Amino acid sequence: MADPPGCCSACATCLLCPYSCQWITAKKEKRKGLRTTKYDCSWFIFLFCVFLFTLVWLYFAIIILNDFHNFNEFIFRQRKLWLDWSLVLLIATAVLISYSSVLLVLALCLQLCGQPLKLHWVHKVLLILTALVVAAAFTGLGVKWAEEWKSARISLQATGPFLHIGAVGGMTLLAWPLASFIYRTRSAGLKVFLLLMYCAAMIALYLAPLGITSPCIMEENQLPPKPALVGHRGAPMLAPENTLMSLHKAVECDVQVFETDVMVSADGVPFLMHDEELTRTTNVQAVFPERAALNSTAFNWTDLQQLDAGSWFLERRPFPTVQSLSPGDRKEAAKQRIPSLEQALEAAKQSNISIMFDLRPENHSDYQNFVNVTLGVILQSGIPLQQVLWLPDGFREDVKQQAPGVQHVYGRKRLENEKEPELHVNLPYQDMSSEEIRQYRQDNISVNLYVVNQPWLFSVLWCSGVSSVTTNACQVLKEMKHPIWLLPSSTYFMIWIVADCVSFLIIIWAFVLMK
Question: What's a BP term from Gene Ontology annotated to this protein (predicted)?
Answer without folding.
Answer: lipid metabolic process
